[in-house]
From TrEMBL:
The entry's keywords: Hydrolase, Signal
Entry's EC annotation: 3.1.3.1
Name the UniProt record assigns to this protein: Alkaline phosphatase
Positions of the Calcineurin-like phosphoesterase domain: 146-335
Gene3D superfamilies the record matches: 3.60.21.10
GO MF assignments: acid phosphatase activity; alkaline phosphatase activity
Enzyme class of the recorded protein, top EC level: hydrolase
Residues annotated as signal peptide: none
InterPro entries per the UniProt record, alphabetical: Calcineurin-like_PHP (IPR004843), Metallo-depent_PP-like (IPR029052), PAPs-like (IPR039331)
Transmembrane segments: none
Amino acid sequence: MNFTRKRSLRFLIPLILLVGLVIFLSLRWKVWFSNLPEVSYTPSDTIDRLTLTPGQDICHDVTVSWRAGSEPAKSWVVYTSDSMPEIHLPAMASRVESRGGVDVFYSAHLKGLDNQREYKIQVYTDGCSNTDSLTIAFPHPDSTLRLMYLGDLQDIDLAEAKKKLDSISRYYLSTDLYLQVGDLIERPMNSYWDLVYRSVGETLMKRRFVATPGNHEVIKGFRKKIDPRWKAQFNYPLNGPAGQEGLSYYIDHPHCRIVSLNSNHLDRPLELYHQLSWLDDVLGSASQPFLIVMMHHSVKPVRGTRSHPIMYSLVRPILERHKVDLVLAGHDHAYARTTHPDKDAYRSTTPVYLISSFSGKCYENGFSPIFDRLGSGTAFYSLIELTDRSLDFSTYTIDQQLTDHFRLLRPDKAEGQGRVPSRFEELGLDLPEYLLFDQFAGNEKGRKKRAAYQEALKKRLSNKH
């Protein structure tokens, strides 16, 4: 009898586990493996999607990219500056097949330009109508470097996207680089690429755009991949790890090294190994005063019970070992800032972990005490100003309200001393937190969640006072 029962259990337990796995996969199938169909399209014989991306040397190199038609044609770039003759540079063609059609993208790398000059750039493709010229000036190595940090855009409405863009328009001329941490589009489809270029392309894309891929740029499947249009449009330096060239990369300025890590493929053991080894190397070899790492998924998520074990257990130790200054992330559609506690000195220090969102889509934030600053229910943008000794960080709501402010200062380094953490200065203690999330369902479950959220909010406000 006992033998029969044991034998039955031996088969019953695996059967229960198998049924549970099938149910779990059926519930997650659409999230992990299913893609919405893409409508067929044919690109016009017009030059569009003009994009400027920095080369590895921010002060001297730039890449210009564009789309034109569906068949490769002779293409080139003409650039000039005051008192210098025109220079003609051939462009490389890249034919990209997507689920909806075929595009041909072109790119040309302009290297070793004079950062004391302003350049006029014009692109040409045989048989395609022309575009307006671009004007570009480079940041000077000794001047303040001005960056703008934007979270997920992921817009589905053109008017809403342009409204948000108007809120940051006063910074266009003074911003050297735009840092965008993924989910630029809602889905990997031509229609959403069209929308983002019609809304923000005329401004952000033409002023040196620095992006990292998000999960909404991913084509799902058993072997998920980044939409091939992402890499064709954003031609970043090919200095990343094997298999991730142009998706993970770094760019340099005398004040900082900016590292972009593709966090979408860290669930594959071999790619995880390559990416972690590469990250360790590029942070360890940097000689700049400040280190900035940007990636889509955060080390310390702010959305409810969400967690990223690989990011926290494997990526975080590398960031903290190399005393990275800023870690910029998105994905959670809310704002959060967490400092790294220095247990020996009883003070906050680097890395400073940040999550931001520039999207109309908002998620419920958590209220863990690890977060020094929080924000939700609206869009945010951050301004970063760097010199060789200081980094000033300010975050605003879409309505121009300052909601976070801190400064990092580089200490003097003794001869032979390794990299030391920057000194953190809190400048935003008296600033209001904009916790405006209220997108709860109207049913009983939604009402309970709203009540719990409001109670947690009251507790946070009382603790701050």
